[in-house]
């Protein structure tokens, strides 16, 4: 029984990483001014965190951000994305997993703010502060679109899968 449980604990986040990378890679909009892009990785991170908690939110967020940057040609962002999206997923799961709708919305806002702040710092380090400032609106857009898509899917899956 314990062996089956541990295999499940490895397989589920791995599958969620794979699905999130594919979805984020298919729906991607490059933003040349910031050397980055808008994608749907935040939706997948929210789904993982709301279904399985902060551990899986952290794993899916970090690995998805890292792998997406690697395969998208944004290698300079890989390690920053590992940290930023990992922390975002941790916050989504910590504040939103098995919580009231109000706390889940607070979790979404907090996670998006962390992601936006993280990429402001990242762009400011990699390029300059003006680049970080230019990225704020596009990162907000990405985060809130991810929340608008991810939360209803997570809630529907949680109900139908009885997680």
Automatic annotation (TrEMBL):
Keyword annotations of the record: Membrane, Transmembrane, Transmembrane helix
Q: Which domain of life is it from?
A: Bacteria
InterPro entries the record matches? ECF_substrate-spec-like
Question: What GO terms fall under cellular component here?
Answer: membrane
Q: Supply the Pfam families for this chain.
A: ECF-ribofla_trS
Residues annotated as transmembrane: 12-31, 38-54, 74-96, 103-121, 133-155
Q: Record's Gene3D superfamilies?
A: 1.10.1760.20
Q: What is this protein called?
A: Integral membrane protein
Q: Which organism is it from?
A: Paucilactobacillus vaccinostercus DSM 20634
